[in-house]
Amino acid sequence: xxxxxxxxxxxxxxxxxxxxxxxxxxxxxxxxxxxxxxxxxxxxxxxxxxxxxxxxxxxxxxxxxxxxxxxxxxxxxxxxxxxxxxxxxxxxxxxxxxxxxxxxxxxxxxxxxxxxxxxxxxxxxxxxxxxxxxxxx
Length: 137
Hints:
137 residues, mainly beta, 6-stranded antiparallel β-sheet
């Protein structure tokens, strides 16, 4: 059995490529490319490419503004090397709800604690026992 995406592979990212979860990527390039829309109209768009993947993401105005806000600059040449988070969601297009990819700033990495264990004479800040969830297997 062959899926539609296997039969007709795309060089562009789709919401389904994210498998329902957000993905953090690092921008590798931001060229301005001429693309054809589904109705055959040719448009120039900024197309993001990322380190570690061949698929690219053409930007609409919403995603352009998101990257510009994250980076702090609307000059796309300055975006290379910055990390962004791609996440799947839905939007209304031509009166229909459709899957899409949106962009947000990645959450900061948790800081590591130098000494994660309290001294032996200090009680932990909680007294609850771990609940028994039964046989998890």
